Amino acid sequence: MADSTTGPPAAEPQSPSANTANIANAAASPSASPVATPPAATLPTGSAQPAVTDEGEATRNESATIPAEPNSNAITSTEPPLTISEPSASEPNEIAPAEEVPTDDDGNSIYERISSYSASLVSSAINYPIEYGRRFHSFREGVYVLPNDTLEMERLNVTHNMVVRAIGDRLYLAPLEKEKIHKILDVGTGTGIWAIEMGDFFPNAEVFGNDLSPIQPDWVPPNVKFFVEDVESPWIEDEMYDFIFVRHMLVSIADWPKLVRNVYEHCSHLNPGGWAEFQDMDGQYYSQDGTLTEDHETRKWNKQFVDACEGMGRTSRPGPQLKGWVTDAGFQRITHYKFKCPMGPWPVDPHYQDVGTLNLYQLLDGLEGFTLKLFCDYLGHTKEQVFVMMAKVSKELQDPSLHAIFDHHVVFAQKPETSDEENGDA
């Protein structure tokens, strides 16, 4: 199951909308504007598709490094241009027609079953504990180390916009045939922003999102539904999806192979011929030009964060392992892309400037949430020590001479339309 040696299909631009004056608007909660369209932009020529190496791994350009802007400034208040373009269904290799999947005449029946299951969990899920001045999940308390309060919700929405921009203004990269997508599942939906925007792109499909906390807005497209669920517990049986999307579950999953197998086979959650897409980060920071050194507080902080998550059994580096887990689960037509995400607006390339500005914004916004509980409770630091470290990290990240990067991995794959047993194979 080799990686594809082509870039993702070119994006189809959407109608432009008015720009806003402040980057913070990119972080607005979906509840404020349930189906907000980000400001439109045109990518630089040739920038929408990542280049691919001989091994099939993809980065956005053929250069080994991202050139830095000589006179880069720290993060500004100007919002970088963003757009979300509807992916093209085209692909270099023709997609074999999938069999028509029967649909339930009662469009609400699945949601009613899910709602019944989810309702029993909501009362415990909204009893939020407050620690270190931040609100955390109560359902499966302690499983997820990051907060779930308003500040974290805003950061998650900025991160969503950053990743959409990083991968070419796309919500997903899998070569979906729109008319064959009837049910979509967003695993670990968070604020629900991805599911809401997918509900607009697929108005004739049902879009479901699950999460540990019911923090999603009530005002959403009529085809979008949310429910409370721990994806590491047994999944709801008998639910079938044509596309399952799993993004940014780093530091939250104890058994990744089990999660990927659940997507593939448990209770037939993914229809034969259906697609799954996994997007996640490699949480280890690096620089291509040696500007991030072992002496930097950012390096020390990042190493402690990575080590603490590993010690808890919930890796912060799932991205590089996604392809292996997907392969082992039995998927086919596996494609793996890797995108560089600079931490700051220091690159020369306008595309990377946009990504870096949003990335720096979400990192600075989330630094306290990433650090306080984990470093105090698990590593034994005092609050005073943590605040001193965070201040140093924040200052370094805003220094344009520091060219730190992390990688964002995308793996999409298809479930075989017939199993080996059906084909008579051993």
TrEMBL record:
Residues 15-48 have a biased composition (Low complexity). Belongs to the methyltransferase superfamily. LaeA methyltransferase family. Keywords: Methyltransferase, Transferase. PANTHER family: ABC TRANSMEMBRANE TYPE-1 DOMAIN-CONTAINING PROTEIN-RELATED, METHYLTRANSFERASE. Residues 1-108 are annotated as: Disordered. One of its GO terms (biological process) is methylation. One of its GO terms (molecular function) is methyltransferase activity. Signal peptide: none annotated. Residues 70-91 have a biased composition (Polar residues). It holds the Pfam family Methyltransf_23. This is Umta methyltransferase family protein. The keyword Methyltransferase applies.
